[in-house]
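hey so u asked for the seq, here:
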Amino acid sequence: MAIPMMQDGTFPIPGFVYETACRQGDVYAADCPTRQLLDRVGDKWSVLILLLLGEESMRFNAMRRRIAGVSQKMLSQTLRSLERDGLVDRVVTPTMPVEVTYSITSMGSELIDALTMMMRWAEQRMPAVAQAQARFDARCDEPGAVRRP
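ran it, structure tokens below
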């Protein structure tokens, strides 16, 4: 595996976490790690998984049954990413068959309040959003209206 190069052709020391130009939070910069984390926690599957694990620890198939529409592959990929980011913990119990349980970490728990507020806002505002969408769609369906892609 190639070692990532740092600025000026230097290489990081194994285990060393290096800072980027985004240190002050320039989330508009394409290479900003904060932006990458926002992409993760803003993803619908991540939000649903974190909210669910905020309620209780769960096994993979229980989560898959609870989150309608998520595929096995997407659930697996999202859990792996959340685990990598330190938001979800994966515990393997050596039984027959092996039991894997997922739980939220303390850092993931810190997100729960913000995610819960966002979910409640969406639930409360959905009627207004639906009305706005209907008005917009009606304007676009008028004769002579130019549809934007």
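Residues 106-140 form the longest helix (35 residues). The two ends are 41 Å apart (CA to CA).
lmk if thats what u needed
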